[in-house]
Amino acid sequence: MDYTFHWRPVIKALPDLMEAALTTLEAAALSMIIGIVLGLVLALLRLHGNRPLYLFATVWVEIARNTPALLQLFFFGFGLGAFGWHLSPFMIVLCGLSFNNAGYLAENFRGGFLAIPDTQIKAARSLGMSASQSYLHIIIPQVFRLIYHPLTNQLVWAVLMSSLGMLVGFRELSGETQFLASNTFRLFEFFLAAAVIYYLLVKIVLGTSYLLCRKLFRY
Amino acid sequence: MSTEVNAIQFFSGFQVSDLWYLAKGAGGTIVISAIAISVGTILGCLFGWALSVSRWANMTLGSVLDVFRSVPLIIQLLLFFNFLPILGLPVGPFAAGTIVLIFYTAALVAQVARGGIEAVPSSMRNAARSLGMTYWQDIRYVVMPVGLRAVLPAWTGVALGVLKDSALVSVLGYIELLRASQILVTRTQEPFIILTIVGLFYFALSYPISKMTARLEQRWQYD
Amino acid sequence: MKTFTKHLASLAIGSVIAFGTITSAQADKLDDVISEGTLRCGVVLDFPPIGYRDANNEPAGFDVEYCNDLAKALDVDAEILPVTWAERLPSIVNNRTDVVFGGTSDSLQRAITVGFSIPYAVYYSQAIVGKDSGIKTVEDMKGKRIAAAVGTLPEKEFLKLAKKWDTEDLYQGYQSENEVFLAVAQGKADAGLTTNTAVKPVVQQFASLSAGPRMPWTTDYTSVVGPRKDQGWLNYLNLFVTHQVRSGRYQELWGTYVGGQAPELRIPNVLY
Question: Fewer Cβ neighbours under 10 Å: the N or C end of chain B?
Answer without folding.
Answer: C
